[in-house]
């Protein structure tokens, strides 16, 4: 165990300054695992693929004694850019999503351990930004005694009441190629796709009293072969931010199948979350690793930083908010562990 408490700013900057764009988390994982071992933690490097691994740490003793687990992700979206400090703000890729969060969780767990609390653990996963493959693997390693999972994402130091799910669908239209001077000899797949997307705007989608109304984004469109050819194929990927069972959305959009085929790509369910008295709480429209970490216990969502700064060209987090977050994590753990 180190003689000094965790320096949250130094730890955040050290993590930010290693590029861990999704798929490239190996170097950050090795640095973090070595750091935690030097601080006296018992660390397991849980392999996810040939290059990447989750970092799972305990204060010692049987894994079954862990009752509260702090968790967040190691990976970041591109492009990488290193850390800098300007005034009270710490900038850099991952500053708030989620390396600053990770540092605050390590600091909180360290404080608890120094106070004699050994029932806490750390689960830091890869791949959150691209399908949660690290969380899916980590779920298989959950011990039987874990009761609560405190997942870290930027929530402005508020607890989450609920998060939306996602449903990704691909709308694929088929046509028949022809010379564009004789369009009547062909069948335009692009026209069919446009008709389907326009009709999608008119379809009522599920709503929820807490999470609000389902909304969607047409994120990708592709089609055609040349400007002077009637398009033989076209497709679009649509991301729904769901507030209910995804099956309800699929039923709602089923009438579009007279124009396009609908292919399922990805589904993550919405989540209702535990709260603790004394903490502000809010609904968050994004998704997290929580649905894939169900075996680690009842979920809570909490973290410093704003989701509006995450993924941006000037991603940042307030240093005061980082420091406060460590104390909040300690208070949450103690409330959950109280008799």
Number of domains: 2
Enumerate the strands of the largest sheet in spatial order, edge to edge or round the barrel: 1-2-6-3-7-17
The rough form would be described as elongated
Q: Any idea what the CATH architecture of the largest domain is? A: 3-Layer(aba) Sandwich
The mean pLDDT is 95
List the total number of helices.
Answer: 7
Q: How many extended strands?
A: 18
Output the CATH topology of the largest domain: Aminopeptidase
Question: H/E order of the elements?
Answer: HHEEEEEHEHEEEHEEEEHEEEEEH
Strand % is 25-35%
**Assigned CATH class of the largest domain:** Alpha Beta
pLDDT < 50 stretches = none
DSSP helix fraction: 25-40%
* Rg calc: 23 Å
Care to describe what's here?
- By secondary structure, the chain is of the alpha+beta class.
- The chain has two domains: 8-163 and 270-337, Aminopeptidase (3-Layer(aba) Sandwich), CATH 3.40.630.10; 165-268, Alpha-Beta Plaits (2-Layer Sandwich).
- The chain has helices at 8-16, 26-38, 95-114, 133-139, 189-200, 246-253, 319-337, and strands spanning 42-47, 53-58, 68-73, 84-86, 89-91, 120-125, 148-151, 159-163, 165-174, 207-208, 212-213, 215-223, 233-242, 261-268, 271-272, 281-284, 298-301, 316-318.
């Amino acid at each position: 165990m180190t003689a000094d408490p965790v320096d949250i700013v130094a730890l955040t900057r050290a993590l930010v300054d290693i590029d861990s764009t999704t798929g490239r988390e190996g170097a950050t994982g090795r640095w973090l695992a070595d750091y935690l071992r030097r601080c006296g933690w018992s660390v397991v490097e849980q392999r996810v693929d040939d290059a990447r691994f989750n970092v799972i740490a305990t204060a010692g003793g049987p894994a079954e004694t862990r009752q509260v687990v702090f968790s967040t992700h190691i990976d970041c979206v591109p492009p990488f850019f290193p850390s800098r400090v300007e005034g009270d703000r710490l900038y850099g890729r991952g500053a708030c999503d989620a390396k600053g969060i990770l540092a605050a969780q390590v600091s909180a767990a360290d404080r608890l351990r120094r106070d004699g609390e050994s029932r806490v653990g750390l689960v830091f996963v890869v791949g959150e930004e691209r399908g949660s493959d690290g969380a899916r693997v980590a779920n298989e390693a959950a011990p039987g005694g874990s009761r609560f999972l405190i997942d870290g994402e930027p929530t402005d130091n508020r607890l989450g009441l609920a998060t939306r799910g996602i449903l990704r669908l691909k709308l694929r239209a088929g046509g028949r190629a022809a010379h564009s001077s004789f369009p009547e000899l062909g069948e335009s797949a692009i026209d069919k796709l446009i008709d389907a997307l326009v009709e999608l705007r008119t379809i009522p989608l599920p709503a929820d009293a807490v999470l609000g109304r389902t909304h969607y984004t047409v994120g990708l469109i592709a089609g055609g072969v040349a400007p002077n050819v009637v398009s033989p194929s076209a497709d679009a990927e649509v991301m729904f931010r769901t507030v209910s069972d995804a099956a309800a959305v699929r039923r709602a959009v089923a009438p579009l199948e007279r124009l396009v085929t609908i292919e399922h790509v990805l589904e993550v369910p919405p989540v209702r979350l535990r709260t603790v008295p004394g903490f502000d709480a809010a609904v968050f429209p994004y998704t997290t690793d929580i649905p894939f970490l169900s075996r680690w216990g009842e979920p809570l969502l909490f973290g410093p930083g704003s989701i509006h700064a995450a993924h941006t060209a000037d991603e940042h987090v307030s240093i005061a908010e980082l420091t406060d977050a460590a104390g909040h994590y300690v208070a949450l753990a103690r409330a959950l562990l109280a008799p």
